[in-house]
Amino acid sequence: MGSVRKSIPILSALMVLSIAFGTMRVVAQDDDPIIIGAPVHLTGWMAAYDTPPLEGAQLAVQVINEAGGVLGRPLEIMAIDGRTDPATVGNAAIEVIDAGAEVLLAPCDFDYGAPVGQAAQAAGLVGVSFCASSPLYGSDALGDLQFTASMWNQTMSSAAAEFAVAQGWTTGALIVDTTTEYTQSLGEYFAEAFTHFGGEVVLDDTYLQGDNQIDAQIQRLEGLGTPPDVIFLSTNMPDYAMMVRELRSAGFEQPLMGGDAMDTVEFYPAVGEDLGNNIFISTHSFVGPGVGPEMDEFLALYEAEYG
Description:
The chain is α/β, with parallel strands linked by helices. It folds into 2 domains: 10-150 and 287-306, Response regulator (Rossmann fold, 3-Layer(aba) Sandwich), CATH 3.40.50.2300; 153-281, Response regulator (Rossmann fold, 3-Layer(aba) Sandwich), CATH 3.40.50.2300. It is 43% helix and 16% strand. It has helices at residues 10-23, 47-66, 86-98, 110-122, 139-142, 153-166, 181-196, 215-222, 239-249, 267-271, 293-306; strands at residues 34-40, 75-81, 103-106, 127-129, 146-148, 171-177, 200-207, 230-234, 256-258, 279-281. The strands form 2 sheets. The chain has a 5-stranded parallel β-sheet, with helices on both faces. It has a 5-stranded parallel β-sheet with strand order 7-6-8-9-10, with helices on both faces. α9 (239-249) links the parallel β8 and β9 (256-258).
């Protein structure tokens, strides 16, 4: 848990670009740049999720351009800040389309990224979310040209639940943020899978993003009598870190679990060294040395570019 995490896997960035350029409609055959519109959230709480993969995509574009580009044309990313606001990011998507974008990169969330997918679909363009994992982010809800480079919540929650039961954690409690579709469905799928694998959900509690305290939820946990073996949390940063700090301060030392929204560079510094233990994250990949040669190559490229 003390290892440095940089959640910008080059594999995801390359996947986004490969999917996009494998299905885009080429509108020019000259050496003008292919504009990749990136109406994503660079300020507000969503910046923790959109800024790192944008940096990964920018690094991937640099590598691809050095190798000759795509179809003989260089790539160029046009990023506009959606400010963690669905209406603003939707307008930003229209702006990059009007500026000539031929493919769109979308934010890492259904609620805060769907307006980008909708604008891309309306323009007949491929749109790819960096890491939206709600099962609603895809062709059924947004159209046949819209994709995500992420697994969906069903996979992430099921993996977490199977792991928990395999550790002998047979009773579980949940605190689930109902503010976004992502956080709500992540919790729902965990509860379903945990029960399927033989666990018992003893408390299924809710939370609203921005409440900044979980006093009532802690009281209900304390009222159980017998503490649960594991507590599954589903929210976004910075609320994730707050939940961990408050649970630990209240004496809950059992394993805490969460989804990929917990896996940010801000999480462990915000939790603090003394409290950042016995935490298990169901996420895309461990971003660190030893995962494989491609990851090692990415880390070297990233550190050379960004430090």
